[in-house]
Records
---
Amino acid sequence: MFDWWHRIVSRFVFETLELSPESAAGSALDFFLYDTVKILTLLAVIIFLITFVRSYFPTEKVRDWLEGKHPLVGHVAAALFGIITPFCSCSAIPLFLGFIQARIPLGVTFSYLISAPMNNEIAIAMLFSLFGWKITALYIGFGLLVAIVAGIVIGKLDLEDEVLIKPPPVKPPHIEEVKIPVKERLKEAWDYTLDLLKKVGLYVLAGVGIGAFIHGYVPSDLIVRYAGGDAWYAVPLATILGVPMYSNAAGVMPLIEVLTQKGMLMGTALSFMMAITALSLPEAMILKKILSTKLIAIFFGTVALGIMIIGFIFNAVLH
Amino acid sequence: MKIEILESGCTSCRSLEHNVREALAKSGIEAEVEVVEDLQRIMAYGVMRTPGLVVDGKVLSMGKNLTPDEIIGLLP
């Protein structure tokens, strides 16, 4: 899709600037120019599309739909809804309480709470532009699996008393649905996309910049020795390293792309990316206001375990 | 008129309060503004996305930071 752009960049770097394709500088600059434009373009298009579609699926609709469903249907549906609904960790508390208030089981609520940040628009757009649709589909598919299974496990543990605030068990009042014209939805999606690009653009540039440096200057065997290969600790280490990186997902993912090109195994990379989005420290801090430390620890532990199992299986199968 | 801003500590919540006050100053409308952080009260409105804008007990907007002009357009 971006071949024409690669030809322009290559001509500029190798002919106009007369850098050699074999030199580290030439290869790094070529990589940086090609990748930044490709990624920023795809990011804008994908985030815009996702945001537009999502404007038709407000969280309240999801809650109303999930109310009173069979738990198993609930887990699967909640995880799927996580893809198409907007989610911001700053709204995690009212969202969580709103689900509990509507008597949606705790485990089903967690299935949603795990899936929603994992399938956030930035992660999906970055994955697609860096790795293509196959890896994106694998990421979403396994992400859903983790969300469903972890939700079922948490649901089986009878942890209802670990929710510290009990919202009044009244039926939530019906909020009038305002008809928003398509034109306005498109405009809002576009404004949101620009806003988001302004926020993550610098991270993307920094990420691709460091990635380009590694691409050009760092030899592959160094990476394989330290970050990749089949060392047993690669997956757990990647999972733990992913926890503090939530807000920088856009900057970290270009690095993961380069690391995989240089020998990091795909399972390790998947675990890393899932840990970045699903295990977010700020979200844990926010949820501490309404959940006991024990429940948060179980939530993180279950999801981390699921993410690592997927990484291990993936590395074993693809090896 | 009574305006309530439902918030749960996000940055766009604080700027919504700021924009509401700006909207009131700009339009000359008089209203009592209250920031609601009590979760029980937020839940009683059935609002799951903050910031929420409630005017005279009616939820007008949620999960969105509105500009002063948008707020003026929403006020009755």
---
Amino acid sequence: MSLDIKKIRTDFPILNQEIYGKPLVYFDNGATTQKPQVVIDEEVKIYSHENSNIHRGVHFLSEQLTQRFEDARKVVQKFINAKYDHEIIFTSGTTQSINTVAYSFGERFVNEEDEIIISTLEHHSNIVPWQLLCERKKAILKVIPINDAGELLIDEFEKLISPKTRIVAINQVSNALGTVNDVKGIINISHKHNIPVLIDGAQSIQHGKTDVQDMDCDFFAFSGHKLYGPTGIGVLYGKEKWLNKMPPFLSGGEMIKKVSFEKTTFNELPFKFEAGTPNFTSAIAMSKAIEYIQAIGLNEIADYEKELLNYATEKLQSIKGLKIIGTSKNKVSLISFILENIHHYDAGMVIDKMGIAVRTGHHCAEPVMQRFNIEGTLRASFSFYNTKEEIDKLYNAILTVKQMFG
Amino acid sequence: MDINTKQDEIIEEFSIFDDWMDKYNYLIELSRELPAIDPKYKTNQYLIEGCQSKVWLNAELEKGVLKFSADSDAIITKGIVALLIRVLNNQKPEDVMNVDLYFIEKIGLQQNLSPTRSNGLLAMVKQMKLYALAFHAKNK
């Protein structure tokens, strides 16, 4: 079934506006996605009628909202097909999710001279927490290289594994290039050596179905705001067997069971990892975003976005002097590109004035840029509310840029 | 010509553009007219690093006034650099130290001086003022 894009676009109020007198073309979905009215309405509804702190009071509003927060957890659990709802931990976003594992797993399982494997494709948020862990523990960070298409070299990955490897942390989709990594293959290889794997799902969760049990990852992290939900909310999925063995990351509030000055005992999962008042409003609103995209259909979204990617790739490739960075056969709907002899900043400034939002720079993935020996790219990332007509506008904008700076 | 007269002159020049593309085309033109920086200053020591585009800046004091030279790897940035130099060149350090560069906002380029530091321009303005301050202190 094909999507009714015209109707879908009316669900997103922000899309219906002009920027610099031109209809907004929003192609910065990799940075954050826009919010459907149901998500916006949910936040307004909670603050207007339901707000109360959860897990605390015995009064009506508190109990009602506690129930809704826990229902949201179940929505997430089903969405990624986790085995238990207590394996779903609400965080502020992917970055906090990864930091939680890097700190907590690291405290318990990583020691001097141990090794951690990440990849060249990682976002800084999946590099720096591990670097800091390595500094704390005097452990060693190893990096999976990529080929010229922007794909992980699996043979090289296997060579990096040693008896000292404690965890592998890679993204499912590269935010800078759009490459879809063979995470199942990597998890399979890692598990043969009894090494757990963390998957950074920030750029994959919104583009198709996620099944953490089928994938068999040990940890999975994603953000609500890249999933058509609110900012400031995200998820850490962890297998129960790992989460139970890990110490708390942040402390205080809901994560404790009993506090005295002699000893504090910690609450059980998932509350052990949810210190302080959680962002319940956004958690509930995020569950509405999940239900919204489920109603459209994750497979339908994936198919349509693929169509947009193919169309845009063909169109952009036809421009002389335009080079696409990241040419893996398996990509999400994202195109990173450079223009011969034209600085990406100049191009971005001009494209912006045509009402088109693209991202320019290194996309918080400097090692990727270094690998291709470039300082930055322009990145257009498409969502299911985008259209081929909008891609035509980007195409024309690039032609104008070429004319101005060429 | 004093700093504010020069700023007002630029505001006047830009007032004829009603389209962004015209503005940018003008900046491109200005970037081409900016005198080249001596290659010996195009090193890391003189680099003001922005997240996205780079600026190289040098300043000297000649007969009591500042002489700036600069370059950028991005053309629009370079065009704005040229405007800044036009305003602040040949001015006394004490006049540059605490200058209010209101023309940037008036011609609609404040986006380029936002604190995201994406292009190094904000840092460049700070650096120009620092040079002025340093020369002023030295002169005293």
